[in-house]
Design goal:
With 206 residues, this protein is mostly helical. The protein has helices at 6-32, 39-61, 72-90, 100-116, 131-166, 179-205; strands at residues 68-69, 124-125.
């Protein structure tokens, strides 16, 4: 499925890079003002970035015979796309928008790497005749995306805990949610990630 012109795919990738970096810039400006980033900074431009990224990724990922081309570049791009998408969805329920400060530049960096070092080698994975395999890929990628967000959330939790123990309240202290809220969010992300990972392992049996 290479229906899009390569030049158009490149333009979509460049647009996604700029949009991802735009989200990070808006969140950084918010933090500089000692205010926590919210969904208002993350979602509108973040959804635009994820949409452009997805439009560029699909024709690269899906081969003419329906197989998935999961070479290292496309696999990394798919993974970071999932992380950004999961973050956008999670921000609807929990105050995790601040994680966009790390997630969005990482997605932009992966796309920039794809543009700078394009891989012509194909690694096809046939999923047309095996819907369980496709489900396994989607579930496992979603699970690892959540666990990656959990790792980022644990860094915030460590920063908050360290500030409390040392009684050193920097300007960034006020932008983080309360310690109890950070712990609650972290465990919710971990349990959801492990639940999806368990289901993906079961789907891999088939």
């Amino acid at each position: 499925m290479h229906s899009l012109n390569p030049t158009l795919i490149t333009l979509l990738q460049l647009g996604a890079i700029l949009a991802y970096l735009g989200v990070a810039w808006f969140e950084y400006q918010r933090i500089r003002q000692d205010r926590a980033p919210t969904r208002r900074q993350l979602v509108p431009l973040g959804a635009f970035a994820v949409g452009l990224h997805g439009l560029a990724l699909v024709p690269q990922l899906v081969m003419p015979d329906g197989a998935l081309n999961l070479n290292i570049g496309h696999a990394l791009s798919l993974f970071t796309w999932f992380i950004a998408l999961v973050l956008l969805i999670a921000s609807a329920w929990r105050p995790v928008a601040i994680l966009g400060l790390g997630v969005m530049p990482a997605a932009a960096l992966v796309l920039l790497g794809e543009l700078t070092f394009p891989s012509s080698e194909a690694m096809p994975v046939t999923v047309v005749d095996n819907p369980y395999l496709l489900g396994h890929i989607i579930l496992s990628t979603s699970a690892y995306a959540l666990l990656t967000l959990a790792a980022a959330q644990s860094v915030l939790l460590w920063m908050q805990d360290r500030s409390l123990r040392q009684k050193h309240f920097s300007s960034g202290f006020n932008i983080l949610p309360p310690l109890q809220a950070l712990e609650e969010i972290l465990f919710q992300i971990i349990w959801t990630g492990f639940a999806l990972l368990s289901i993906s392992m079961l789907s891999g049996i088939f």
